[in-house]
Specification:
CATH class: Mainly Alpha
CATH topology: Globin-like
CATH architecture: Orthogonal Bundle
Distance between the termini: 35 Å
Structural class: mainly alpha
Oligomer: single chain
Radius of gyration: 14 Å
Largest sheet: none
Shape: globular
Number of helices: 8
Length: about 120
C-alpha cells in the first residue's frame, strides 16, 4: 500500500484541474454522450460551475483539501435516464484521461473502483 493519498497520486489541485479539463473535453467529443455536454459550450458560466463541482468532488473524494458542496449523485443525475452504455462511455473517457496524464495503473484501478461504487447512484435515477 502506498503512503501517498489518491489526491497526491492524481497530481493534487493542479493535476485534478487538468484531468477535469481533459475529461470534459473528451465527453464533448464522445459520440455516445456528447449531446449531454455540448450545451455547456453555450453557457460558459454553467460549464465552469460544472467543472468546479467536478474538481471539488474529485479533491474531496481523493483525500484532498476541497469540500464538495454540490448535489448528491442521485440528485445531480435525476431524470437524465443514463443508461449502461453512456455510463461506460463516460468511464472510458475518464480512464483514457488518467492514462494520458501518466497516472499509474494501480491509481487508475482505484479511480475505477470509486466510479463503479457510484454506478447505481447514477444510472436511471
Amino acid at each position: 500500500m502506498t503512503s501517498t493519498t489518491l489526491y497526491e497520486r492524481l497530481g493534487g489541485e493542479r493535476g485534478i484541474a487538468e484531468l477535469v479539463e481533459d475529461i470534459v473535453a473528451a465527453h464533448m467529443q464522445n459520440p455516445r454522450i456528447q449531446a449531454r455536454f455540448l450545451p455547456y459550450r453555450e453557457d460558459p458560466a454553467r460549464l465552469e460551475e460544472v467543472k468546479g463541482h467536478l474538481r471539488d468532488f474529485l479533491s474531496a473524494g481523493s483525500g484532498g483539501p476541497h469540500e464538495y458542496r454540490g448535489r448528491s449523485m442521485p440528485e445531480a443525475h435525476r431524470g437524465m435516464n443514463i443508461d449502461e452504455a453512456e455510463y461506460m462511455a463516460a468511464l472510458d473517457d475518464i480512464l483514457a484521461a488518467l492514462d494520458r496524464h501518466g497516472i499509474d495503473p494501480q491509481t487508475r484501478l482505484e479511480v475505477l473502483g470509486i466510479a463503479y461504487s457510484l454506478k447505481e447512484e447514477i444510472l436511471h435515477v
